[in-house]
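Input.
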Amino acid sequence: MTVLLSKAAAATGAGMGRVVRTAVRWAAACVLTVLPALVLTAAPPARAQGTLSDRLKPGGTKPSDKPAERLLVEAAELVYDNDRNTVSAVGNAELHYGPRTLLADKVLYDRNTGRVFAEGNVRLTDETGAVVTGDRMELTDDFRSGFIDSLRVQQTVEQRGRVARVRFSAPRAERIEGETTTFENGTYTACEPCKTDPERPPLWQVKSARIIHNNSQRRIYYEDSTLEIGGVPVAYLPYFYTPDPTVRRETGFLAPHFVSSNALGYGIGTPFFWNIAPDYDLTVEPTFLSRQGVLGQAEWRQRLANGFYNIRLSGIFQTTPSAFLPGPLGPGNRDFRGSVESSGHFYLSERWRAGWDVVGVTDKWFLDNYRIRNQTISTDYFREAISTAFLIGQGDRSWFEARAYYFKGLSTYDWQKQQPIVAPVIDYDKRINGPAPLGGEVRFQMNFQNLTREATQYQEIPRTRSYLVSSSANGFTFPLYPTCTVFERGQCLVRGLAGLDTRLSAQVSWRRTFTDEFGQVWQPFAYLRTDVFYVDPNTRSYQNREITNLFSPDVDFTGRVMPAVGLEYRYPFVADFGALGVHTVSPVAQVIARPSETHIGRLPNEDAQSLVFDDTNLFQWDKFSGYDRVEGGVRANLGAEYAITTRTGFHVNAMVGESFALAGVNSFRRGDIANVGRDSGLETQRSDFVSRLQVSPNQNISFITRARFDQKTFALDRFEAGVFAKLSPFVPLDTSVIYARYAARPELGQSFRREGVQASATYSITPNWFVSGSLLLDLSRYLEVRDLYANGAEAYLLNPVGLPPDRGTRDKLYVAGTNLGFGYRDECTTVSLNYISSPRETASGLRERNQTFLLRLELRTLGEANFRQNLSTTTTADGIATVR
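Output.
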């Protein structure tokens, strides 16, 4: 039963007290048997700023044009005591006033003082969603101010896409106007209490004599504080403040980082973040280094209405330049070294966007020497910074992309004059429905590329280790920049041609798929490809003149046209064996007729050097990876696919196929200036066999392998196999193992087979504790080491891009990389320790074993800290004179 009373009527004189109390008791009895709810609706106040105390005072208030906030009360019993001038809600009292809610066993309102007293399991939820609990609360009539005993506050916030709950507690606290809460002898943590022992200290907490939480400033101030880990004090701070957990950006100091290096000395970086405005900020980070001075870094970030950009500057006036090697092995005696990095991304309209990602450095060793990280920098064996600017447009069935590239080699053995500048490269792709009566789909593709390079890049086959430059440092001789001894076809490859190379390619194609009444699938297709080249090779400096011994390039304007027609046929046979699953067998045949490729070996090849023949490109119309080459001749591609799918999720997919050169010039038999096509498995009339097998017992486990077999001897030429398993919830283990073996390709400069295994796993010891690891094994490294000793180690003292003549590395099982780690993570804490060991090519040619310990500690909502310690086992490193 619900009873509606106005507050003005409820606040009548004492003469009506007995009537009111009788009516209330009668209503309460009905409520107990029907519905324990009682709603009080406030009459319009006499003035716009009237409070609950104004409306519940004897005599009530006068009406006003503006409505007041309504007080909704639910309780087992509502008692008016006119003698004491109080109103009590007893038994599971629930009071709603505006955005705030108060729950308690009993709530008493004193109309004389305008105070609200709540006792027993008190729970207050404010307009922010924060939940305040306590044994007893004394509040103002709008629940915004007051004192709280045995206070506990729980607030739910979202950080980095994850939901976190932060908790305050104190024996007594004061709440002022809903803006500031002062906790006396308070604690703060983001950890969940132990379910079996709530009194047990959380994993971490901050204990303070006073904690002041200011909602308007969105800050938390701590006075006389101690950080406890597992109940054990580990750090003391007399005063500090942190942003409210709801704050994503706040001016202040960020977590420092520490530096320890022989070349740099010991140091500490103290970044300061300045939240200037909601749309832009500035981070300034001085790093004080005992041996080199002060490294300054600053990053400006701004978000605009249609995008964002950032600029990052780094620089240092070195006090000890001699710690680094002289040129060309290092930066030399530079006093100032620095870098500029910038990125931007802007949405010009719903379909167009533009941006850039740029890195500029005073020398190629700076970023690595001073450990400045950038996502655009490759961190594999060969380090390089890629600067690009782009314009991209996307339609319903079209795509446009224009880019410019600048590649900066960041390793000592990189010769910048061999790096290309690509400006621009433009791609356009448009698809439309085919005209009647042809139907099907018509596709138009266009690619434009303009590329320049100062010095031609050569690669000798087989490698005899000839170099352009020889320099000495620390008693060692460092040969740099590989080249050829004999500039003749078959002994020297051209990886990049000096000069100007401009190409425009356009292709229009048509295809349509038919399915006849027998289930046979027919797909006729046709395309016309046109390429126009402008080539102006540079033969005037460095070793560029030697290019004339290798080939006679087509200079100035050259063109080629490639028309083609073809047909692809598939006939899937499907059988349903019930519990044994659905089985599908699909023979596939494809025939393409076209003239022979022209200008083979007389044009540059920049973008079509990564040719890998396998199951993924068996039925591609053109198997080259780029536009600089075009496949010609009449060719047939044959294959068959077999698949099984069961109701339990078991899946098998297998495929085998072969390609045949039927007529015309086999484009893969006649290698170009980079010998692309040779040793590919396609250079003979009958290609090698390619295959694929994938077995997935369920969605958590998958095994896949692909292989290429010699068409005459059936010898294994390429083999890749991988197992990917996620075994939880049965076993808390995620693992993967990948094995690869590739035969030698001497015509491409790969004199030995390449073989290796990579394995990784993460095992959850408990729901919180985990161990992880990865291992990279090089199973063919010993072959090159053995070859070095066969030719005499003295003839190969140091190798800038190869392998060290170390007798200890001649084992067939060589550990190339290791990553071991363990850690703990829960809703409030992440702790991890990782050991990383990986080889890295250096100026000396040694694969320096980079060894790094990385410790990371994150206290959710409070901050995080990282500590990285690098170790080295060699006496030289890139650009550095000595390393311990």
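The longest strand covers residues 521-537.
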